[in-house]
Amino acid sequence: MAVDLHMHSLFSVDGFSTPEELMEIMAGKGITTVSLTDHNSVDGVERARAKARQLGLGFVTGAEFDVEWHGSEQHMLAFGFDPANTAIRRICARHFAQYPLNFERFLPILERRHGITREQLAAGLAKRYRTKEAPVLNKWYAREFMVTAGISVDDRAALAAMSAIASEAERNVATPWVWSDLETVRDAVHAAGGIILIAHPTKFLRGRMRDQMRLVEAALAGGIDGLELYHPANMAEPHFNEFVEEARRLGCALSGGSDTHTDPNRDKSNFSAPDWLVETIANALKRRVSHPKES
Questions:
Q1: Where are the alpha helices (DSSP H) in the chain?
Q2: Which CATH fold topology does 38-96+180-254+274-290 show?
Q3: What percent of the chain has pLDDT over 70?
């Protein structure tokens, strides 16, 4: 049996599928346990859970949070928490508000460089984020718009154009993104009955296993419950098998997922992770219930 515990629906600003479509895709691939881990949002969780139940899939409540940790941005995966928890909802609302707030700096540059107006972008929001209430303008959506409007020839060209705009927009901004610190998110997840894991720990330390393990060990020392082990970025590392051995020796919670964001009509990946990962998550959740004050 195989699992996928890291995926994004259109409740993430850069996701394409509805929660229901994602569950159907996973069932079609033979995945048996899933978790919807939208960026800074739990709004799609109950829809995904209902569809997963209908399809006979195991389901783990999840989310992926941006956090500030030692002066830099880091992604954290949360599992098994109460998605209705007030503190979790408050963090999600604060973080999600960063997307349109950050994009306000992009708008005048987009119009000056490419003739794209707020009104043009807003006109397509409801169609792009179908079934999502009150979608917001953001740089990922604007990048897609540049391709569909014929302003950029392809995704790569749009990415380059948006990167140039970001450089100008954020030139004199000390903190373009303002995320909660790791401790705040960690404590909220724990108080809501969940666990928190460092996501794709190799992604920004390519080929440097010692540094990757130091990052993981620092996270664990800081009250994080484990790490995402099976992820395309991790699995691309030449030392991945050794990384797995080291991670399993830690005895912490381990997860794995495709990190898919894609349009259901374009998703051709065949990612899967082993189902024993779910047991490590379940064990960590039990420990959290037994020792709720630990962090």
A1: 19-28, 45-55, 86-96, 98-103, 107-114, 118-123, 125-128, 139-148, 155-169, 182-191, 209-221, 232-235, 240-250, 276-290
A2: TIM Barrel (3.20.20)
A3: 96
